[in-house]
Write a structure and sequence with these properties.
The complex is a heterodimer of chains A (90) and B (286). Helices cover 63% and strands 0% of the residues of chain A. Chain A is mainly α and 90 residues long. Chain A is elongated, with a radius of gyration of 20 Å. Chain B is mostly helical. Classes of the chains: A mainly alpha (90), B mainly alpha (286). At the A-B interface, α2 of A face α5 of B.
């Protein structure tokens, strides 16, 4: 019973981590698109890179956000795969 | 013309060697024009455009030199994504993901800090000072290494994949960002980091060169529009000549270094950086 509840807790935590990674990944990719499309003056003030009156596009910020977003999705992809049966060594 | 063909040849030859030898290419390309009295500065847009071409050439040479390894690595990455796991015996996939883990933090730091660091540490004086620091770092890495160097057998990519943990790869990869400071060598800090996490000199050099390829290539590709845009006007000819020279010396350098590190250490490069950095610092002071 104790071992089962520990195992269930670990599975739940694992699932939560996967969903968190997917959410963060998608949010960062959206943020990357915002960086590429919007000039610095049009970015929301709470986003790093906002500069009033600036027409500069933060392309590098966008690439950085995109890379981390993709990394989060790849992490979720591996993490959400179920346990694999291993063939016995010959 | 902002850069003459003679200057392009000298800087191209220097770039190919110093990008791969652990002696800081950026540091040398800042110090040498100052020593020779050339009116070329690190932050001049035409010089950045010139450097894009020479870096791209170096990255292509590295890609070509390790082509078979990259084919195996990319296949391993694809296999692991398809199977949604990195099989314990799939060292190509493990090495591929180690390179990804090592490249992402350095890439992000580079994207966010490159401009600021370039403007703060643009002078030849600071490059000479950091060249000395680079020498001390290389000496320190050899002194603090986890195990004594010994000849190793088998496939070097397998050895690297088996010995490095994810945390090791992230740490060694992140060190590359230190090379944004002119005078600190990217290959030097990654080789030093490799030694500190238990790789042999040969394997540390191999991992450093594999790590360097995507980051140098991506940095150059990101600035390619400047080379082909209006900023490249008047520099494209010298940039092409410089890139060809860089390609030749980069090929000879990587060939030499892979053999050199089979039996030798970082110590000669550490001594060179310390001596050259000290001499240039004193020269610029007086």
């Amino acid at each position: 019973m104790g071992a089962e509840s520990v195992s269930f807790g670990a599975v739940e935590r694992g699932r939560l981590l996967v969903w968190l990674a997917v959410l963060v990944g998608v949010a960062l990719i959206v943020l990357a698109v915002v960086y590429w499309v919007e000039p610095a003056k049009s970015l929301p003030s709470w986003i790093p890179g906002h500069e009033a009156g600036s027409n500069h596009h933060h392309v590098k910020h966008g690439i950085a956000a995109f890379l981390v977003g993709v990394a989060c999705l790849v992490f979720a992809w591996f993490r959400s795969a179920g346990p694999r049966p291993r063939s016995a060594a010959v | 013309m902002p850069i003459s063909y003679f200057q392009a040849i000298v800087l191209g030859l220097l770039q190919g060697v110093s990008e791969l030898f652990p002696v800081s290419s950026l540091g040398h390309s800042v110090i040498l024009p100052k020593l020779l009295g050339w009116n070329i500065h690190q932050n001049d847009s035409y010089f950045i455009t010139f450097l894009v071409a020479t870096h791209l050439a170096t990255a292509l040479v590295l890609l070509g030199f390790f082509w078979r390894d990259w084919v195996r690595i990319v296949r391993g990455l694809g296999r692991s994504l398809r199977n949604r796991e990195i099989a314990p015996d799939d060292t190509d996939a493990k090495l591929g993901w180690l390179l990804v883990v090592g490249t992402i933090p350095a890439g992000i730091l580079g994207l966010l800090l490159e401009h600021k660091l370039r403007s703060v540490f643009a002078s030849a004086q600071s490059a000479a000072f950091f060249l000395m620091i680079n020498g001390l770092l290389l000496f320190g890495a050899e002194a603090l290494r986890r195990r004594a160097p010994q000849p190793e057998h088998g496939d070097p990519d397998n050895r690297v994949a088996r010995r490095l943990s994810w945390r090791d790869a992230a740490g060694v990869g992140t060190l590359q960002a230190a090379a944004l400071v002119p005078g600190i060598s990217r290959s030097g800090v990654t080789m030093g980091g490799g030694l500190l996490v238990g790789l042999s000199n040969e394997d540390a050099a191999r991992f450093a060169f594999l790590l360097a390829t995507p980051i140098i290539g991506a940095a150059a590709a990101l600035k390619l529009p400047e080379l082909f845009g209006s900023q490249g006007n008047g520099v494209r000819g010298p940039a092409l000549v410089g890139a060809l020279c860089a390609a030749v010396t980069a090929y000879l350098s990587v060939r030499f270094l892979m053999r050199f590190f089979e039996t030798n250490r970082l110590t000669p490069f550490a001594a060179y950086c310390l001596a050259a950095g000290l001499a240039c610092t004193l020269y610029f002071l007086v």
